[in-house]
Amino acid sequence: ICTTDDPVDSLEWHKKLAEDDTFDVKVLPAWRPDKAMNIEKPEYLDYLNTLSDVSGIKVNSFATLMDALRNRMQFFDSMGCSVSDHALEYVMYKPYTDEEIEAIFAKRFAGEAITTEEMNKFKTAFMVSVGKEYNKLNWVMQLHYGIRDNNVLRYNQLGPDTGYDCINTYDCSAEMAQFLNALNSTDELPKTIIYSLNPSVNAAIGTVIGCFQDSKAVGKIQQGSAWWFNDHKQGMIDQMTSLANLGLLSNFVGMLTDSRSFLSYTRHEYFRRILCNLIGGWVENGEYPADEEILGRIVQDISYNNAVRYFGFEV
Fold first, then answer.
1. Which terminus of the chain is less hemmed in, N or C, by CB atoms within 10 Å?
2. How far is Cα 2 from Cα 259, in angstroms, rounded to an integer?
């Protein structure tokens, strides 16, 4: 089990669980630095003060922001973290210079509003910078995207990520490829999983991930499981069918349940039944070989072994 943790979190309960010999379930932190990236949010400067206090590094520039985040990454890594998670409106890539990013940061740090173009350049620089750090740490970079916090009234009442999100129909595959290429061109692209709220881009993601595979990891760049609005029967069938058509289904790391409810763990059982039924149907139609040993191994790998290997979990 991985929890969702902000860079400023103390991880005190992870430490307690790790020291508890009577509890044999691994509960590990997952790095979620959205608040450090979302420069346009009204609470951004307050967050930088908190990050400064926790890291011991005064954050007053983009360079020092990255220094503070690297400091916290080292701590998270020492606590068993091996995965990051990013909520994006879309996977963007806007060319920038280092000087531009420092100027954008300084403008926002002075309390001024920034333009949409400046925001997108800043977020691009942020994602490229942290992506390089994940590569050094051998962390997995997860990108999930959709339009978030649409209801401003409820955002003001309840805060971010409280359920007012929707599918983004903008096809960002070109910028997604540019972003991955920016990291790959210097051989600093980490293992990456891409999830979209929009099921119509399954094929686009399937082709983008095919551009950046290499021998450093099996299935290094992954299309994530059917997620959020798509983690129902048809959504799972569509995602796995698209992946099987365009990639290598047997390398898939399987189901994700990003929920606040223990009841949602039943989705993994649901997923496994759908996976077996899908493959069984292909066999019955003569589209897959009726080799139970090979097919059984594929199902076991997708259900468990691939994730253990991909995330570097000890068992």
1. C
2. 11
pLDDT digits (tens, 9 = 90+) for 179-221: 999 999 999 999 999 999 999 999 999 999 999 999 999 999 9
Residue 267 pairs in a beta bridge with none
| Contact (CB, 8 A) for 88 and 116 | no
Rounded CA-CA distance 253/306 in Å is: 5
Pick the closest to residue 143 from 175, 111, 185, 97 (CA basis).
Answer: 175
Q: In 3-state terms, what secondary structure has residue 12?
A: helix
- What's the pTM value of the predicted model, to 2 decimals? 0.96
Side-chain-facing half-sphere of 13: CA atoms under 13 Å:
8
| Residue type at position 289 | P
Mean per-residue pLDDT, 227-240: 94
Count of helix runs (H) and strand runs (E) in the chain? 13, 6
What single letter denotes the amino acid at residue 236? M
